[in-house]
Specification:
It contains four helices and five strands; from the N terminus they run αβααββββα. By secondary structure, it is of the alpha+beta class. The radius of gyration is 26 Å and the shape is flat.
Length: 153
């Protein structure tokens, strides 16, 4: 009887173990040491390091590789242990110009707005949304047209 109770308690405690959650696409330091300033271009870097987590926009000719390690106990909110951003800047000819490394102390958290964007038109009730698709154009041919291109008869 004691063995059964001990087993149940031990099994339930294993769910409270601290878990490490790894997110992102951060290449290893060995791979980063392979790339050369002024020599490698976007294509060669993508082959060596893999596709970036995201690319610069609005004239920012950069690749960004982001990696985070969080720890979480059971169902509690995860805590950030480590975050690293690797920024690779390119010149106009897409040759690697500069490499920057940022940690969690050099980043800023941007809070999402709780506001909702209002849609044009009127608000529809749940019942109207469900029943609103009956009699829609395209339903005679066996359903709505999905995807791009021409619909076949």
């Amino acid at each position: 009887m004691r063995l059964i109770i001990f087993t149940i308690i031990l099994t339930s405690l294993t769910s409270c173990i601290n878990k490490k959650l790894i997110h992102g696409n951060l290449p290893s330091a060995d791979l980063v040491s392979i790339i050369k300033l002024g020599k490698d271009n976007k294509e060669s870097i993508s082959k060596i390091l893999g596709e970036p987590s995201f690319q610069g926009t609005l004239g920012d000719n950069s690749f960004y590789y982001l990696g985070r390690v969080n720890s979480q106990i059971a169902f509690l909110k995860p805590d950030l242990e480590q975050q690293i951003i690797l920024e690779l800047n390119f010149d106009k000819k897409d040759k690697l110009k500069k490499i920057f490394v940022y940690d969690e102390k050099q980043t800023i958290n941007i809070a999402m707005s709780p506001k909702e964007t209002q849609l044009a038109g009127y608000k529809q009730s749940l019942l109207r949304q469900i029943l609103g698709n009956f009699g829609m154009p395209g339903m005679k041919r066996g359903g709505p047209i999905i995807g791009s291109g021409r619909a076949e008869n």
